[in-house]
Amino acid sequence: MNVRLRKQATGTISARKSAGADASGWEAGRQAGWKHGYHVGACEALQQKLPPSASAQHPIRILYVRAGLRGPFPDLDQAVTEALRGMVSELTVAAPSDNLVALAARSRPDLVLVMHGTQVPGNQVQGIRALGIKTAIWLVDEPYVTDVTTVIAPQYEWLFTHELASIPIYRQLGCQVHYMPLAVNPAVYKPKYVAPQYQSDICFIGNAFFNRVSLIDRIAPTLAARDTRIVGLFWKRLRRYRSLSKGIRVSWISADEAASYYNGAKIVINIHRSHDDKVHNKNSRNLPGLSINPRTYEISASGAFQLTDVRQDLTDFYMPGVELETYSSANELVDKIVYYLQNEEQRKQIALNGFKKTLAQHTYQKRLSQLLQIVFP
After folding, report:
1. Within this chain, do residues 169 and 208 fall inside the same structural domain, yes or no?
2. On the chain, which terminus has fewer CB atoms closer than 10 Å, C or N?
3. Over the stretch 137-151, which tens digit does the pLDDT of each residue have?
4. How far apart are CA 227 and CA 11, in angstroms?
């Protein structure tokens, strides 16, 4: 065969290989899209079978004071205000920098409910209580800032916290404290169709606290061999950053975009913060973290399969192996990643079970109804 014919033959073979690769890629994409659409449809069908959520209507006026912080707090404030609007006769929303005493004197709410409260001046709380108006605070970032919250919490008549470990401390301080877990806003975290850039085998959303960095470094070979997305701040701390960099996005993202990543992932990893992080925490009492984070609910509400580390109260809310899956070591996490990537039907059934449980029991509407029933029995 002369040189010209050999080049033509080689080009023909390459073209066939390329066409075959394109066809194979198209078919793989079609199947992945079909499976994702089927799962979203299954979630929607399951949701339609659930009884409509109904919360008790309270003929009361609420003044809600936002957290006034960045990060996850604006989304949390939105979730709480949206839930309250359908539950009370009148809702006024304020920033912590507002003149809350003057606002309360004008609107005469039955309750001033403060989210987190680290930005609210103590004299404002005292002034509201002097008007004879009930005050309550919901602490939602414990035990990581307990050095701050143990100072401000006794100023309020009612105290609600999501963290089991801090309850004895507040009782010692004379607070009327109640356990109030976090929850999810299903209007934001929900099953949906997502673009290819949000699709992955494995996903983690959250900032690079040192315990998370340590775990991700340990399982990096497993993650690097698969389509992995890691999104949050400070991830250049990883020793193995280079091997994972193509899937890392060093950024804070909105709740809506986090839900997109959850929807597009086959497996979502949940890694709780460490209670003894001296750099990021204000927890000189070294209180342990016993309660699950809001991400636990948000992943499940998105219809995603979740692999989470274990907190003490986890089994009060979800059944491991049935509604989500757990790990207790890096080796177990790797083993379960490999297993569940290979067992799609089991993975999706667990995700559906977790989705159903979350919508039925773990929304902010449910939590706020419980809170109001405590304050107004």
Report:
1. no
2. C
3. 999 999 999 999 999
4. 31
Query: What order of strands is seen across the sheet that includes strand 111-115?
Result: 88-94, 58-65, 111-115, 134-139, 158-161, 177-179
Is the previous residue joined to 143 through a cis bond, with omega within 30 degrees of 0?
yes
In a domain, 7, yes or no: no
- State the pTM of this model: 0.88
The pLDDT tens digits of the residues spanning 59-104 come to 999 999 999 999 899 999 999 999 999 899 999 999 999 999 999 9
Give the Å distances, CA to CA, from 20 to 24, 34, 111: 6, 21, 67
Cβ atoms of residues 100 and 112 within 8 Å: yes
Q: What secondary structure, in 3-state letters, does 13-65 show?
A: HHHHHHHHHHHHHHHHHHHHHHHHHHHHHHHHHHHHHCCCCCCCCEEEEEEEE
Residue 333 identity: L
**Please, are residues 159 and 170 in contact by the beta-carbon 8 Å criterion?**
yes
Length of the chain: 377
Residue 133 is encoded by which pair of tokens? 């108006």
Domain count, the chain: 2
- Going by C-alpha positions, the residue among 47, 152, 56 that lies closest to residue 368 is 56
For residue 276, the 8-state DSSP code is T
Angle, CA 305 vertex, CA 301 and CA 311 arms, to 5° = 80
Backbone angles phi, psi at 118, to 5 degrees: -70, -15
Contact 79, 254 (CB under 8 A): no
Neighbouring CB atoms inside 10 A of 322's CB total 12
Q: Are 178 and 126 in a shared domain?
A: yes
The pLDDT value recorded for residue 30 is 56
